[in-house]
Structure formats: structure tokens, C-alpha cells
Amino acid sequence: MKPDALRGHLDALLLATLDGRQLHGYAIIEALQQGSGGALDLPTGTVYPALRRLERAGHVVSDWSTVGGRKRRTYKLTQAGQRALNTERTAWREFTTVIDGVLGGDGKWAQT
Amino acid sequence: MGTDVIERYVTDLGSRLQGSRKQVRELLTETRDSLADATEAHLDRGLTEKEAQKRAVEEFGPVREIANEYQAELAVAYGTRTLIWLAIVLPLMHMAWEYGRMLLIGPWQDFGAMPPAWYLFIAKANDLTSGIASGVALLALILGRFLARRCDAKLLARLGATIAIGAVAAVLLGNLSIILATAHLDVSRLMQSLPMTIASMVTWIVIIRLGLLARRCLSCVTIVA
Q1: Is residue A108 part of a domain?
Q2: In chain A, how many domains are there?
Q3: Could A43 and B38 be called an inter-chain contact, meaning their C-beta atoms sit closer than 8 Å?
Q4: Where's the Transcription regulator PadR N-terminal domain (chain A) (predicted)?
Q5: Nearest-CA residue of chain A relative to B9?
Q6: How far, in whole angstroms, is CA B58 from its chain's centroid?
């Protein structure tokens, strides 16, 4: 998938990745790639500024801790982040329902 | 030898960043860790160390593009820090100075003759400037948090730097005006109390410090392409 198409959804994807767990940067990147079956083709370096942006918005909090013998910055959702994720999910379902109603019609209008 | 690829990338990235030293250091540590993790993952897939590191760096993104995104965040963070300083320090500084004046010099009425209306107007305007500048900084901080995900980081950083510079310039102008007005009215009043002269000098040091912070905010923003 093209990076430009993903950029607008990166915040929501990151919130979803952190849902119910605390992860460090590279674990988030791996989870994103695994969740998409390897289709997410975004420069991995763009994840870190996006995490800072989410932290600024109060949607995630970060903490330095030792993971696997290395000091790492880990991220988790805040309550506001959880609410933002729920809103993003609802908006996405509405969006896909509307678009699918038109694009997913297999040209049924042309047949009538 | 492979480490050179990652270290070169991190060094190049670091040389393009400007902001709080602690935040730059943390971003670079996180970058180095991420590249090391990616390298390990590629080694597990059978690449040689050099190939694995090269792939990790390629996946991370072009250094210029990544530096630009990092810098925008650093600029916002620096602006936020400066606005916090302005919101806290300005009212405290003003209250401390006013309290000192009342204690060491006394109210205006004790001067024998009340200062002329134009002088009181400048004094009042100067009093208000600190409060307004601090209030604007506080409002910008609240708005900045609200706009964090709705507004481009570069634009947010520019707005923060502009507000910080405007606030410091207003306070600077207010303080300069009251000093010039006092000198015009009665120059001896400027040196009437040694503790107050020292307090005024401390005030100026704080204003200059805040001015330097605000200028650095702008410089953090201007290097974002």
C-alpha cells in the first residue's frame, strides 16, 4: 500500500496497535506490518514523530523501561487515547459502509 | 563494519536536528534501537550483517525526510516548553517586582505628588502586559493540545514560536517603556532603592533569557523544510 494513502490513517493505526498493550517503537512497527500481512509500506522512521504527536495530544503516554536487557521507550494508550480509538473505529466503519455501498456494487446500476 | 551504516545514519540525522538536547538524545536513542531491532530481524531472515543494516536504514526512510518530521516535533516541543515558561514566569516575576516595590519604595501616593496621567497609563499598560502575555501563552498551550492531531506540526510550531516571540516582545516593550518614562519623569527614582535596582536587573536577565528561548523556538521552526 502506498505511503501517501497511509499517512492520513497512521494515527488511528498506531492507536489500534497499542489497544490493550504497552509496546516499544519497533514492536509497534512489527505489529503494524504483521497486522497488515506485510502490506503496510511506510518508512518506519515516520512512526516515531507520529507517536510524539499522539503523546502531545494526550492519547498515548511513554515511559523508559528495560525490555530484553535494553533501555527502551514504551508507549501505551491513555483513557483519552482509548476514546479517540473508539471514535476512529466508528468513523471508519461508517466510511467503509458508505463507500462500499457505492464502489462494491459490481456495476448493479448499469444492469438495471 | 555494519555498525558504521547505522551510526552514520544516526549521526547524519542528529546533525540535522535542533531542539532540547534531552529530546534530541532520546529521539536518536530510539532511532538507534529501532535500527538495531530491524537489523536483528533481517539477520534472522538470513541477510549478512552489512546487508541487514543497510536494509534497516532503507526501511527507516530517507534521512532528509525523517529529519524533517523529527524536527517539526522537536520545534513543537521547544515551543511548548517556552510557552510554559512564559505562562509561569511572567506573572510570578511581575508579582514579585510589584510586591518588592510596595515594600521598599511604597505606593505612588507616597511620592509627594502623584505622577502624571500619562505615566500612570504606561505603568498600568506595563502591569497588564505581563498578565496578557502569560494568558496568551496559557491559551496557546491549551489550544496546542486540542490541535495536536488536527493541525500540521510545522504550522503548530510556527504559531507557538510566533506567540512566544510576540509575548516576550510585548513584555520587553512594556519594561522598556516604564524605565524610559520613569527616567523622563525623575531619573533619581530609577536608583532610589538598591534592592529594587537589583530586582530590576534580575527581571531583565529573566526577560533576556525568555527572549533567547523564544528566538531558539523560531530557529527550530525555520530549519524545518
Answers
A1: no
A2: 1
A3: no
A4: 14-86
A5: A45
A6: 34
